[in-house]
Amino acid sequence: MAAGEQVSNIFDTILVLDFGSQYSHLITRRLREFNIYAEMLPCTQKISELGWTPKGVILSGGPYSVYAEDAPHVDHAIFDLNVPILGICYGMQELAWINGKQVGRGDKREYGPATLKVIDNSNPLFKGMNDSTVWMSHGDKLHGLPTGYKTIAVSDNSPYCGIVHETKAIYGIQFHPEVTHSTQGKTLLKNFAVELCHTKQNWTMENFIDTEINRIRNLVGPTAEVIGAVSGGVDSTVASKLMTEAIGDRFHAILVDNGVLRLNEAANVKKTLVEGLGINLDVVDASEEFLTKLKGVTDPEKKRKIIGNTFIHVFEREAEKIKPKDGKEIQFLLQGTLYPDVIESISFKGPSQTIKTHHNVGGLLENMKLKLIEPLRELFKDEVRHLGELLGIPHDLVWRHPFPGPGIAIRVLGEVTKEQVEIARKADNIYIEEIKKAGLYNQISQAFACLLPVKSVGVMGDQRTYDQVIALRAIETTDFMTADWFPFEHSFLKKVASRIVNEVDGVARVTYDITSKPPATVEWE
Ligand SMILES: Nc1ncnc2c1ncn2[C@@H]1O[C@H](COP(=O)(O)OP(=O)(O)OP(=O)(O)O)[C@@H](O)[C@H]1O
Ligand SMILES: O=c1[nH]c(=O)c2[nH+]cn([C@@H]3O[C@H](COP(=O)(O)O)[C@@H](O)[C@H]3O)c2[nH]1
Ligand SMILES: NC(=O)CC[C@H](N)C(=O)O
Ligand SMILES: [Mg+2]
């Protein structure tokens, strides 16, 4: 955790304790949509170690059974906070387990829609709601009312679909209000936070900017200096702009040209960030160093490792060259960590299999003994984009598709050489240019061209050609975990294919990738 005063001490905060449900992060998401700040922590969080006082606590769902020997349980100190509590699914079963243990296996699993029948319409939790569809996902159920509770809602299969404590604001619901299939679920979550917890709805990026700039200034102090790796992507640019607003030229941004950036990228980023945004940025051309190390390497994971390691090496070397004006060493490192990265690392989940290693290149500099500053660690991507717009970052940059750290090296399949990178770059540039011209850029989540290591026969100007193949990829997704390919008009693909074959030497054929994720991944390597 970055030092300095926490956001949860500044904004009214709902604490979400995660019991491992696949939907847990959506609870936080929904509340933020109502300008309510919410933070998710693992269910094992000790309340005495929290460092701030929540306005209310939500216990999420989870895959376990409360009665199982190894089931996770909440710190009972939440009840001493004297704030409203809402248990969702496993969370409700946990409340019931603590108050009489009447939880067991149901006769049938309930997965899918159910109709919620509200019994107590006057209860603030149901304000503005009526009987509606809710989403169920459980196999266990309450076999009786927990001691001291009463029923406020039912469904066909769940006689205790909504319960509340007789005298305290402690609620339990069997369904999942956080998923969109629960048609009035958002209202219920808002009611809990606003009507019951009296949380202020002041979580806006306008308010965040000032708070964050003050926080950075207090943390860094009047003279210390900060470095940061900046790629020209959304996250590092927004973080850099915020740093620049806070401490001006005491922030040093470094962009490493690794030889596998997009066409004219280093120059374009320099122009936008230095001239447009006043960021103190240096571009370090290390392209020869990277390309030399990549020589002869074809394995995708080896490519990632080489690029990651070389990046650290170059970055450290450049950082050492910076001599702060106060005569001391650089003390802080800026990172563009986002909330989903934080959630992934704190979430109460078992290990999942590694398909590919996505290293956050900036994230590996542990031995630099620098203190971390992560101004975006509380924000989701759409919040970062909104913040970027407010900070005056050009619209096109704020809405840029993500670009992987290993760049074009994982889009040139097989060996990476300067010539191969050049072909992939030119083809990619034409493709993106046409996508923008057709007004499709913002409908697509990510698009790029890949160069395949196969040769194919063609004919141009009565001459036989024998050249490589470009594969175009464009996907639509919300979370990049699953994705669908984008349904371009045929005329669009025809135009792009024709331009690429005509304008890029070394390409004989163009194909369009029509595989979803899964089974494919977004990148080809
Ligand atoms: N060529 C580079 N030079 C300097 N830093 C880099 C470079 N490539 C990546 N980084 C660092 O690695 C981090 C992670 O990259 P990542 O692609 O996840 O984020 P981003 O580039 O800031 O934003 P986006 O997700 O929109 O691409 C960046 O925030 C940046 O700090
Ligand atoms: O910084 C990165 N380093 C990597 O090594 C890397 N590999 C994939 N990606 C990006 O992650 C998202 C999902 O991609 P995949 O479906 O290919 O795993 C997509 O947005 C990919 O571009 C990477 N980003
Ligand atoms: N979604 C949930 O929280 C499920 C809780 C519990 N594992 C059950 O099956 O009932
Ligand atoms: Mg990037």
Automatic annotation (TrEMBL):
A family per Pfam: GMP_synt_C
GO cellular component, one term: cytosol
HAMAP family assigned: GMP_synthase (MF_00344)
Localization of this protein: Cytoplasm, Cytosol
UniProt protein name: GMP synthase [glutamine-hydrolyzing]
Metabolic or biological pathway: Purine metabolism; GMP biosynthesis; GMP from XMP (L-Gln route): step 1/1
Known partners and oligomeric status: Homodimer.
Domain GMPS ATP-PPase positions: 203-400
Lineage top rank: taxon: Eukaryota
Protein EC: 6.3.5.2
Binding-site residues for ATP, renumbered to this chain: S231, G232, G233, V234, D235, S236, T237
Cofactor: Mg(2+)
InterPro entries in the cross-refs: Class_I_gatase-like, GATASE, GMP_synth_C, GMP_synth_GATase, GMP_synthase, GMPS_ATP_PPase_dom, NAD/GMP_synthase, Rossmann-like_a/b/a_fold
Molecular function GO terms recorded: ATP binding; GMP synthase activity
Enzyme class: ligase
Catalytic function, reaction form: XMP + L-glutamine + ATP + H2O = GMP + L-glutamate + AMP + diphosphate + 2 H(+)
Role summary: Catalyzes the conversion of xanthine monophosphate (XMP) to GMP in the presence of glutamine and ATP through an adenyl-XMP intermediate.
Gene3D superfamilies: 3.30.300.10, 3.40.50.880, HUPs
Keywords, sorted A to Z: ATP-binding, Glutamine amidotransferase, GMP biosynthesis, Ligase, Magnesium, Nucleotide-binding, Purine biosynthesis
Organism field: Saccharomyces cerevisiae x Saccharomyces kudriavzevii (strain VIN7)
Coiled coil regions in record: none
